[in-house]
Amino acid sequence: MVKIIIGLICLLIILFSPVGYNVITGRTGYIPLLKTPQYQGDCVEGTIYMRKRHMEVLERWRNAYVRDGIKRYVSINGIYNISLTGTCLKCHSNKAEFCDRCHDYGGIKPGCWDCHHIPEIKAEK
Amino acid sequence: MKIALPFFAIAAIVAVIYSGVKFYNLQIFFGIVLPYICFTLAIVGFIARIIRWAASPVPFHITTVCGQQKSLPWISHSKIESPTTGMGVLLRVIGETIVFRSLFRNDRASLYKDKSRVIYSSDKLLWAGALLFHWFLFIIVLRHLRLFLEPVPYWVITLQNMDGILETTIPGVYISNVIVSLSVLYLILRRFRSRIRYISLPADYFILFLLGSIILSGILMRHIYRVDILDAKAFIMGLIYLKPLVHEGLGAMFYVHLGLVSVLFMYIPHSKLMHMAGIFLSPTRNLKNDSRMKRHINPWGYPVKEHTYDEWEEEFKDALKEAGIPLEGEDVRLRQ
């Protein structure tokens, strides 16, 4: 009986350990905030669409540009050059305060930066 | 009927959650109220069930063994299959838990070619299927920790990257998702075979369909009906710190997934899923085989008031004599 109660307590500790973990790290109410310092007009697609599907857009862009040689992306917001560095990063220039915020929060390690270089942050406040 | 009933039960649950969220905006009920209720019921039910099991007496060691028990020193003793020490029992239970050793010995009866006799052959497919299913389900559960832990620990990210090492599409296909889907499919199809269908109950199908629908909704949420992971995590963090908030970016598929998991949790204490605790509490597995080495005293033993034959004979001596019945106390031949 004692062993069973010890087992049950262990189970409860394991089950509730994530709750304790976040209390220890002090990030229970953390929600990432994004910064886009150099806003230059509308994004290629709407915000909600981009939040859910930007990775698919980027993959399509890569395939279109690298494999098919298509260099323009036409969307409801206009015509854009297919380029991560030249289009996306023009507004979203700060990787640490834009890309990384959500990716770290969701535990995602995208492969973008395996090839692309990380843009230098221009010193302007 | 045995298959249709659980199938439509699951379909009804999915339909109710989906339409409730999609058309009636019942996010608060299906996303917050239902998970809280189900989680509480699961914990309380689980503990109650364990206490009930723990209260049942185990007066005698009823170990089932399949190895040589400890006897004479020159007979080699199977220390794990017929354990006599606490360590042996521990190793046995661990082996049972992590590699399903007794399921490894699973066999199958079938008729020989000319149907002249019954033969028993080894059936490792169920063992392999069960092992893959459980382990990869465990990996999936660990992967979900990224939605519960902030900052996400390095090992969770490593696990996730190893699971998604194929880097097929964006978002990548996880190996664990493929294997778990296939093994659930195998476990379902296995029950359709005539002999196993004969012994299957609606509950057996229900749990498989429930798991299958959870896996399917998770995969759909990842690959087709995208969910904003940011909102998903913020929502879950709100749930676990009792500050629940409904977030916009969560589609109906998220609520279906969450609702089905809630139903699964609620169902655990009343289902065969209690094998997750039962495996540790099986008296045939977790006791030492020392019945012949140690005397086990009946725990309920109390001094019984005895009335021996000699005393009885003494009491009715006169009546017995009168009836001409020989008395053991006087006739030596009767006492030999």
Give the SSE map.
The complex is a heterodimer of chains A (125) and B (336).
Chain A: H1 2-25, H2 47-68, E1 72-75, E2 78-81, H3 84-91, H4 99-106, H5 112-115
Antiparallel strand pairs in A: 1-2
Chain B: H1 4-24, H2 27-55, H3 86-99, H4 101-104, E1 107-111, E2 118-122, H5 124-143, H6 154-163, H7 175-192, H8 194-198, H9 202-223, H10 229-240, H11 252-267, H12 275-281, H13 309-315, H14 317-322
Antiparallel strand pairs in B: 1-2
Helix pairs in contact in B: 1-9, 1-11, 2-11, 5-7, 7-9, 9-11
Task: Report the portion of residues of chain A in β strands.
Answer: 5-15%
Count of helix runs of chain A: 5
Query: How many beta-strand runs of chain B?
Result: 2
What is the CATH class designation of chain B?
Answer: Mainly Alpha
Gyration radius of chain B, in Å? 30 Å
The run of helices and strands of chain B is HHHHEEHHHHHHHHHH
Number of helices of chain B: 14
Task: Return the average pLDDT of chain B rounded to an integer.
Answer: 87
Structural class of the helices, strands and pairings of chain A? Answer: mainly alpha
In helices, the fraction of residues of chain B equals: 55-70%
Oligomer: heterodimer
Q: What low-confidence regions of chain A span 5 or more consecutive residues with pLDDT below 50?
A: none
Q: Round the Cα radius of gyration of chain A to an integer and report it.
A: 21 Å
Distance between the termini of chain B: 68 Å
Spans of chain B with pLDDT under 50 lasting ≥5 residues? none
CATH superfamily of chain B, called what?
Transmembrane di-heme cytochromes, Chain C
